[in-house]
Amino acid sequence: MIGDTLSIQRADTLPLFQQGQTASAKADSDSLQLTAAHTAQEVESGFEGTPIPYSPRTDDAISLTLLACFFLSSIALARGKRFLSQQVKDFVLHRERTSIFDSSTAADMRYLLVLVLQTCVLAGITFFNYFHDTCPALMNHVSPLLLLGIYVGLCLAYFLLKWLLYMFLGWTFFDENRTNLWLESYSTLIYYAGFALFPFVLFLVYFDLSLINLIVIGSIILIFAKILMFYKWIKLFFHQFSGLFLLIVYFCALEIVPCLLLYQGMIQMNNILLIKF
């Protein structure tokens, strides 16, 4: 009697076990199909990855620009080394001679123009890195190449306007010979500022200098250049001690204020670009 009961229970549980196995196999099959469907959708649509933030060191345009500056400065140094060294001697020793624009050849003038352009380009890259650190949202809204071109153009306009201002004031208040000497000295400072900026920009771009180091080293280069300018002003335009205060006022008006105006102009330009783009 007991054996018959066990046989009946086994017969009843066998279909249930088979149904459970079938349901489990079906669930596994449905799960595999669902996983395959999701995988197919991901392959078709792709994963949405995290965008890499912009960095000047990975920008091919900046790398090519620095490489071009290196070759151009090398050519200028190789072919105009004697002419450039003569300018440094005249600047330091304050030699009065024939104007550089009368005695130099066309090749020398081409090299000098290339060095002026190089200084403007390197100064533009310096500002570009500074605003990249202080205003990273700007790089996400505006093309980095466009920003670099704007900064280089502003630096070139700055040097050109100062050149014209020096010519106007010099020929208005001083004689032509003294004005030409100052323009030559100003040109010499611009040429050699480019040579000083080149290693600084290389460290700035490829060694990722911090913002504090950027400001400190950039300020040292700028202050040293202004000290050399003031030295040349004293040599050319200082004749008596009573005129020293007036000379300092003119120096601040022509050297310090334009730098502040250039900086504020770049900030306003950045704000306009953020609004427009």
From TrEMBL:
* Segments traversing the membrane: 61-78, 111-132, 144-169, 189-206, 212-231, 243-263
Keyword terms: Membrane, Transmembrane, Transmembrane helix
So which domain of life are we looking at?
Bacteria
Statement: the UniProt record of this protein carries the keyword Transmembrane = yes
Extract the Pfam families matched here. Answer: DUF4271
The family database entries (InterPro entries) matched by this protein are listed as: DUF4271
- Name this polypeptide is given: DUF4271 domain-containing protein
For this protein's source organism, the top of the classification is: Bacteria, Pseudomonadati, Bacteroidota, Bacteroidia, Bacteroidales
